[in-house]
Amino acid sequence: MTAIERMLAIIAVLFIAMKVVVLAMSPARLSPLRKAAFFLFPGMRPSTFAGSRRNIDRAGTPFVRGFRNVIAGAILFVAARAVATRSLIAAIVIALPAMSLMLHFGLLALSTALWRMCGFPAEDLFRQPWRSESLADFWSRRWNVGFSDMIAVVVHRPVAARWNRRAAVVASFLASGVLHELAISVPAGGGYGLPMLYFAIHGALVAAGIGGRTVTWIALIAPLPLLFHLPFLRAIIVPLLIR
After folding, report:
1. Cα–Cα nearest to 94, from 84, 85, 86
2. Regions of the chain short of the pLDDT cut 70
3. Which stretch of DSSP H or E encloses residue 109?
4. Where are the domains of the chain?
5. Contact predicate 116/130, CB 8 Å
6. 117-148 core/surface letters (b: 16 or more CB in 10 A; e: else)
7. Which is deepest, 67, 144, 169, 219, by most CB within 10 Å?
8. What DSSP state is assigned to residue 189?
9. What is the pLDDT of residues 174-192, one digit of tens each?
10. pLDDT (tens digit, 9 = 90+) per residue, 59-104?
11. pTM of the predicted protein model
């Protein structure tokens, strides 16, 4: 099994496990078919599939946006492969946002559009993260809302109820670090502890109440080599660029 195959397998197992836990903790009661729909949608709110189906306005908006982003990301990724033989660093810098455009802002937006067309109020999972006013705003309300919903249910709320909000914030970011270690470091076979450090830094900043756009973007971008570390780039990204 290649590193890429290991990563996809681990992500699939984590995704299913998170779905099972969230569904078990939710008061929503779904029929077998609606449970299947919930598992097929990347969001983490069972309530999305609990109500009556109805006409959902603006289903076409995420479809157009998603289709446009898939095309734009694919063009960028082709460009990354084209420059890989001349500058691998430049290719990686282009490839990472290209892959995010295709997946996060492309395929996931198309998934949202599909379920809205089916009559379910599927939510956007990536909500203009470039408008974030703080790290808390970025992680809890704008970037991968499905993941933050799961962390809120499984970690943040139970810890806050037992201790306090600050402890819940730190625990939430540490849990995110663990999950990213499993999805990034384990399949790459190296870089252990670096994704955890990335999220620990963010957890400390959010718990301390440090915010503002400038701090937010410095904190997100400057330590990115901790999250997408060299073993990950070599094992996962480079093979996609030079095949």
Report:
1. 84
2. 56-59
3. helix 108-117
4. 3-53+120-242
5. no
6. eeebbbbbbbeebeebebbbbbbbbbbbbbbb
7. 169
8. T
9. 999 999 999 999 999 999 9
10. 678 889 999 999 999 999 999 999 999 999 999 999 999 999 999 9
11. 0.93
